[in-house]
Specification:
13 strands, about 30% helix
């Protein structure tokens, strides 16, 4: 039997909330979630703001509390440790109704893709694990390649409002938003697969939760790692398309697994 949907005014219920960065964006997100909690629009176990600077803006302006802590760490090192522990918890207990989530910064590197690369290299030492150049255009109005191979893509060829929640009616063009990045990347995988075996996409999809803050579940990151493991299990060469995206924008990379 399908559970009844929650009332429209029910608070968003979350477990741990991992906020990447304690600068201007991370401080804004932490403040907004704290405000949502005070107003009864969100519930969460605690906020973990991750920044390598012990005197970052979030520490100076917000401080710490019973449900908020600054984790002084490099992002990559933090994610390695945190996601390893999350994987153990996932194996030992079924996923409950309350999710742990990650709140990305729009200016962060492609951190979760980099984590998948480290995981693949640890899983298959000696096997070619590399970021491959994207041979096909994803077909978005904005498409820029970074030196590390990441493609930054967007359906917007205009300047979007800061902290836009990507509503059904685009606030810039004032018309229905007819695009969805996850659909476009699924179609890109089909086109890439005609040239070379390609699976995915592995997508970490940021959706608005409350008060202008978007996140994606930690469980989706672990599921993405399982998809990469399944893709490489046969030992045949294969590419995996990986994206950290929202409805309108994204960072996309092509993970190449060579022959075992």
């Amino acid at each position: 039997m399908t559970a009844a949907p929650a009332p429209a005014d029910a608070p968003v219920r979350l477990g741990e909330v991992i906020i990447i960065g304690g600068g201007c964006y991370g401080t804004f997100y932490a403040r907004q979630l704290a405000q949502a909690k005070r107003r009864g629009r969100a519930e969460f176990a605690r906020l973990l703001v991750v920044d390598r600077d012990p005197d970052c803006r979030a520490r100076r302006e917000l401080g710490e509390g019973e449900d908020r802590r600054l984790v002084v760490a490099d992002w990559a090192g933090f994610l390695d440790d945190y996601l390893a522990q999350a994987a153990v918890r996932r194996r030992s207990a079924p996923t409950g109704p309350v999710e742990d989530v990650i709140v990305p910064s729009p200016l962060m590197p492609h951190l979760l893709y980099e984590w998948l690369v480290r995981r693949a290299r640890a899983r298959w030492p000696g096997r070619e694990i590399a970021t491959a150049p994207m041979p096909l255009d994803p077909g978005t109005p904005y498409d820029a390649a970074a030196p590390d191979g990441t493609r930054f893509v967007s359906f917007a060829d205009w300047l979007c409002p800061t902290h836009c929640i990507e509503p059904a009616i685009c606030p810039v063009i004032r018309s229905p938003r007819t695009w969805e990045m996850s659909d476009r990347l699924a179609e890109l995988v089909r086109r890439l697969d005609r040239r070379r075996p390609t699976v995915g996409p592995v997508l970490f999809v940021t959706r608005h939760r409350a008060f202008g803050v978007g996140d994606f579940p930690v469980a989706s990151v672990l599921a993405g790692d399982e998809l990469v493991a399944d893709a490489g299990r046969s030992g045949d060469p294969v590419d995996v398309l990986v994206g950290t995206i929202s409805a309108c924008h994204g960072a996309v990379s092509l993970l190449r697994l060579g022959a075992a």
